[in-house]
Each structure stands twice: as structure tokens, then as C-alpha cells.
Write the C-alpha cells for this entry.
Amino acid sequence: MSGALHAQLKAERGNFVLDIELSVEPGETVALLGPNGAGKSTTLEALMGWQRITSGSIELGGRVLDDPASAVFVEPERRAIGVAFQDKLLFPHLSAIDNVAFGVVSQGHSKGESRRMVRELVEALGLTSVADRPADELSGGQAQRVALGRALAINPELLLLDEPMAALDVTTRTAIRRLLRERLVAVEAPTILVTHDPTDASVLADRIIVIEDGKVTQVGTPAEIRRRPQTTYAADLVGINLITGTLRDGTISLDADVVATPDVVTLSTSDRATEGRVVATVHPRAVALHREQPDGSPRNAWMATVESIEPLGETSRVQLGAPLPLTADITPAATEDLGLAPGRSIWVAIKATEISVSNV
Amino acid sequence: MTRQLRSIKSAPPVLVAAAALAVAFFVVPLLGLLWRVPWTDLPEILGRPVVRDALVLSLLSSLAAAALSTILGVPLAWLLARVELRGRSLIRAIVTLPMVLPPVVGGAALLFAFGRRGLVGGGLEDVTGLLLPFSTAGVVMANTFVALPFLVVTVEGGFRNLDPRFEAAAASLGASPLEVFRRVTLPMIRPSIVAGIVLAWARALGEFGATITFAGNLQGRTQTLPLAVFVALESDRDEAVAMSLVLVVISVAVLVGLRDRWWRT
């Protein structure tokens, strides 16, 4: 039923020019990552048909939605694209369940019938207790679930999630992220997740498309982009080390698939409040490299193999291999001082306070 | 909050005095009316045929005018708020003209257009057999002429304040343009529509000049409450005061009904 999205978008808005190409396979989740003003919103609006593209084409499941050259333009209401908006845009005069059922009613079902049809989805989203509450009386997290449900209920041919975790508190963020991770697996439609959060992108997306100033600057899996970021923006955001594991009493037991050899199996953090499944983030600048065993505070220290060294603007990006693959950013001067070269061994140290964790 | 308190404390006495005078300007005439109300004879007066005819006609014609204004005014307000068309400001100026035009002039204009020898009135009579002047339909027409602008202006404001992205979101969920209008636009601007209807209805209820000029002053057919009050002032003061009281009571009821909109502090 579902087909791939192939889009070649050229659009203008004032002085801003968007010129990107993107393809998303059925069942695949692609994160659209970019700074403010990069063209993420324009991309979504072009896909939804809120804005016409000036040239290029949008093809979804073999159907052309927009192609100025052959004067094809499918109106938004005929595109079957499910959208969860950043500011939700829930209809305030309708209850939570009627918001979810809105698109089902548009498909020609009666109000009662539509409610029955979305009941299961409403329950899966944890909204049963607030199903009859007016949309403008929902909490941020509940509203986001309704927005997601409204997009999923129409069985979309393309699912667009615009910053679904923005403007939520940490606990709610985590809950929504977990919910998305569970739900997106079952979504057959191509899915685009717009975000500026590398954690969301890495946890939820199969592939990341980085756009900056209206152009695609990099495409790849989260791991690929982390290893070889093409721009400083990508390096700053996606270059962050993400390590999954289970946290208990401030110690993370690392997942088997994140460690290369079982010499390092735990990391100490300063977080004593969080427990359970976590993703730990460590900025490449917080990964310190030493010629000799460091003394003092770092409780996380081990010998690692240098895999590669890439120049990256003002710094050098060092890829570390076994026992725990990590990315470290150091100055070119330090690279020389340490005598770094691929294949060499080096001491790695991370302060417990430099590791931030969030539940997944 | 503190800022507001300070500004009240430091209000210049001149301003306070002028404001008090303004309040008195409204209160004194009302008291003058209430003072003259023949309370004991009131039930008898309100039961008189001339009063009952005028009351019924007023209620019916003003409600009909409010309904007509809604049917015609909501689409027009939508057009003015949402569609980029040339001459939009000209259309808006024409539509709001009756708000500033003396109603008598409006009534005269209606007469020259829809009267038997008017611009289209003769033709209209030939085709439909309908003669608007000096008929109840003419009353409704004169009322609608002065009431419609209030509805259009209020509802247009409602459309303008509605974020069009809600409608776009509904369209993306598969709703046709008409469905979007019915299921999202109208319910979301409901407060503006209600306010517009009430304002239009109140304006129609109080209409005098256009009605008497275009529809005349025939008891039971075109004599509305304001017209009956005017006539009774010459013949029977008690009757005039009693009918005026009815209009005051209805007006106050409208204000109370709309308090959420205008009495918010």
C-alpha cells in the first residue's frame, strides 16, 4: 500500500531559496536536522501542499503530487499526509478523541463510527482517560499524543513529525520519545522527523538528512554522520557521543552492542536520580586524551586505540576504537603533543559530570 | 497590577469630574424615563392592541433581519477577510456605509431603488408581484440594511483573528474546503458570530429612520415599537413610556447576554 517518497524541492520565500532532494523508503524514518531558518518548515509545507514548489517534483507512492513543469498540483486535502505539527494546531472546540477522529470523519465515516475506529489508537496513546476532554484543556504531553494520533488515524501515505519533542518537559519528552520509538516501527509509510535534537534523531531515525541554508549538506546514518561530519553544524550536533545502557546508582552498564571489547563495561555518572534504560551523551570536547594514565578525579579512564584523525575547522576529530568507540575533539596542537596516529594507543578520560543521561 | 493602581490614584481630578459627568449624562435620561413609568397601569397598557402589534412586529422583523444578515453577512465577512480581491477596501467601505449614513437617507435610497417607480422596484413587482415599500417585508429589508454592517464587521474580525493554519491543518486531514469551513472555521469563530448576530438584532430592533421612510407607519404591518413610541409621544405619554421601558429592558438583557465579551475587566 505504502510507497516511497521522492522529492526534488525548489521553493522560494522572500530571499530564501530552498533546493533539496530527499527520498524516504516505506517504513523508513528520516530525520531532517538543521538549524533555525535552514528550510525545514518550507520543506514540510511543500510536501503538505501548503506551498507550491517553483520547480522540481514531489512523488509519493508512484503518484505525482506537485510538478510545476507538467502543471500537476494535488491539493492538500487529497494528499493523505499525516502531520503532527510543532504547535499541534489541535481544534480547541473538539474533544481529544474527536481531534484524533477528525481525518476519519473526512474520509466519510460518521462521527460515532469514527470514534469507534480510533478508540484503539486513543488507548494505545494513553489518552483514554482524557478522551472526552476539550483539546485546549490538555497538558503539553497529552496534546502531543493527540497530535500524533490525529496524524496516524488517517493511515497516512507519508507521516511528518515536526519537532514532536519541542516545548515539553524532560519527563514528558522521554515518554513521547519512547512512544514514538514504539509506534514508528509499525508505521508503513515513509516518515520524516523534523528536529534539531541529535538525541531524537539518533534514537528515532534510520537516516539523517542535514540541511543548512536551504541545501542538503549531508545524508547518512547517525553513525556515519557522527564519524565524518561534513560541516561544523553537523559536527556540533550529531558528533555528540551517544551511549546506551542501563543506569543504576550512578553507574551505567553499557549495552553489549556499544562496546567493542569487554574491557570497559560501565561508565560512572554524577546522576543518582535517574534509573533504568538510558542514553548517555558525551560531547566530543569532553572526551580527554592523555599520554599517560591520568590521576585525579576522572573515574572513567581506559586505554583505547586511535582509529582515525580528521581535521575539522579549528579542531581535530579523533575516532577512538576498542574498547569503547568514541569521538573526541582536540586541538591540532594537542594532536602533535600526544603523538597521535592511527593504530596508536592512548589514555581516554571522561569526567562523571560530563556525562548527561536521559531515559529512553 | 501595581501600575494600574498607581494610575488610578494619580488620576487628575479634572478627568475624574469629566468622566463622572459622562456617566451622569447616560444615567439621568434613564432615570427620567423610569420616573415617568406608570407602574400601576403598566399591565393594561402593554395589553393594548397597538402596543402588542408593535411589540410582535418588532420582535419578528428584527429577528428576521438578524437571520437575513447572518445568511448574507457571514459569507461576505469571510470573503473580505480571506480572499485577496481587487477593490476589497471599496467593498468594505460600501458595506459599512449604513453604519454612518443617517438612517433616513438609507430609507430614501431604498425607496428610490425598490419603490414602485424605483430603479428595480417596478421590475421586481412585475416579475414577483412583490411590492416592498409599506409592507412587513419592507420593514425587514430596512432593518437588514442598517443591521448587516454590524454583523459583517464583527464576523470579519473573527475570521481575521483565526490562525489560517488551523484550516490548513484540517485540509491536510482530508477535509474539503466547505467541510473545513463547517467543521473548523465556523465553530472556532462562534463567539464572533454570536456577538455579530446579537449586535445586528439589537440594531434592527431600534431602527426608526429607514423603516418609517421606506416602509411607512401602518399599525400591525409596518409600525414597529420605536415608531409606535414616536406616535404615542404626541397622543398618549404613558403608552410611549411603557413601550420605551420594554425597549430598555430588552437592551439591558442583550448587554447582560454579551457581558463575557464586553464586560471583561
Remarks:
- Chain A touches chain B at residues 48-50, 75-81, 83, 85, 89, 91-94, 102-103, 105-107, 150, 154 (CB under 8 Å).
- The domain at 5-227 of chain A is CATH 3.40.50.300 (Rossmann fold).
- Residues 170-186 of chain A form the longest helix (17 residues).
